[in-house]
Give the backbone structure.
Amino acid sequence: MSTIIAFGIKQADGSWKNYTASVNDTSDKFYNNVSIYETQTKEEREAKLPKKYLTNGKVVWTDGKISVATKAAAKVEAETGDLPF
């Protein structure tokens, strides 16, 4: 596995649900290299409970650069309004 992405999606009731996406170096037989599943708690991981998978997918474009987000960089972007979207 080369990359793990953590993200949250706001639910209709206003709560947040956390998910994890893993981007692998190799593809499965359907050419998928991305898996998305519900984020597990530390206790669930230690108990070796199965992951709740949502979907699979594939990377369709990349510039070859993936970097770890830092809190300092996110704070600067939020303060300057220099967001990528």
Summary: The longest helix spans residues 71-80. The CA atoms of residues 36 and 68 lie 18 Å apart.
